[in-house]
From TrEMBL:
It comes from Natrarchaeobius halalkaliphilus. Pfam families: DUF7344. This is DUF7344 domain-containing protein. Residues 14-89 form the DUF7344 domain. It comes from the Archaea. InterPro entries: DUF7344 (IPR055768), WH-like_DNA-bd_sf (IPR036388). The lineage of its organism: Archaea, Methanobacteriati, Methanobacteriota, Stenosarchaea group, Halobacteria.
Length: 121
């Protein structure tokens, strides 16, 4: 087995181990060109297991901080996404194709029923 592929596989598993990252990628893979605020609200809703309309500012702020300071930079470092907070733009990058099959496996087993019921990636 090529050690580089093992390292890439381990990196992909590590990246997708965090639910907030997976939730963000599900939304981006659906082509939801929403603002960061909209993405934060939906990720928070899934993370907190409540409807998006009921997520309070504290819940949104916690998710926003995690995305901006941890998850977005990490996904960008691995070439999965590109983002610019000034323009409020987050898009999938070429590296997404490498983890898409694994992400689909995660999607099919998520605890949040709404995610499992969404179309395949």
């Amino acid at each position: 087995m090529d050690p580089r592929s093992t390292t890439r596989m381990e990196a992909a598993c590590s990246l997708l181990a965090e639910s907030e990252r997976r939730y963000l990628l599900y939304l981006l893979a659906e082509g939801r060109g929403s603002s960061l605020e909209d993405l934060v609200t939906q990720v928070a809703a899934w993370e907190l297991e409540q409807p998006a309309a009921t997520v309070d500012s504290e819940g949104r702020q916690r998710i926003y901080a995690g995305l901006v300071h941890n998850h977005l930079p990490r996904l960008a470092d691995y070439g999965i996404i590109e983002y610019d907070l000034r323009s409020d733009e987050i898009v999938l990058a070429d590296g997404f194709d490498d983890i898409k099959p694994l992400l689909e496996q995660f999607r099919q087993t998520e605890e949040v029923p709404e995610i499992r019921q969404r179309p395949a990636l």
